Every structure is written in C-alpha cells, then in structure tokens.
Here is the input.
Amino acid sequence: MPAPPDSPPPPGGETAALVSAVMEDITRRLAQYGLQPPAQSGDVSDDARRRALARLRVITGVKEAVRLLEDQAARAAAASGAGYPEIGQAVSMSRQGARRRWPGLITGNPPLSTTPPTPRSL
Here is the structure.
C-alpha cells in the first residue's frame, strides 16, 4: 500500500532499495513484451541473451524517463527559489556539479520582492 502523499519519503538508502526492488519487478515484466519467440534450437544461452538484452533496453528507457523527471524537478526547485547548493545537495552532488548538470538554471538575479529596496546611507 502506498504511503499517504504528505508523508516524507524513506531515508536515502531505503529509498534506493525500495526503488531498486520495484524497478527490478517492472523491468522484468516490461522486458517480456520485447522478447522474440524462443529459439527453435532450444538453446538456453540464446534465450538468456535475448532476455538480458530486452531488460537492458527497458532499463535504458526507464533511466531516460527518470532523467527527464529529474530535470523537471530541478527546474521547479529553481523556480521556487532554490539555488545550486540546495539543488546539488538534493541530488548528492556539489554546487558546481549541479551547475554543470543544469547550466543557466539559476539566473543569478535575486527573486523579485514586493518590498521596495531601502536607500543606502552615504
């Protein structure tokens, strides 16, 4: 049963383990759709190779989908005021790594404020 939407996700390692278990099941199921009929010769190694390659194709597609979701989440975080240090921390990379991964995501301009700036004294 899925957790309620307002509950926090499991800690990092637990999240990875949970996602890995779910993805293992999903990729095996999806890979079955891409399989060709078993070899006529009954060669077990051919069948194992086809299964492994079908699974690899599925995992590659999943990886691309997750990357797009990660990009969307990074843009949403930046639009909400997060900077490269926070975004980098969220994806376990340095500020510089986040900046290289998403160049131009943060414009460097401070968020617009509804409070007028205070004059500086000379």
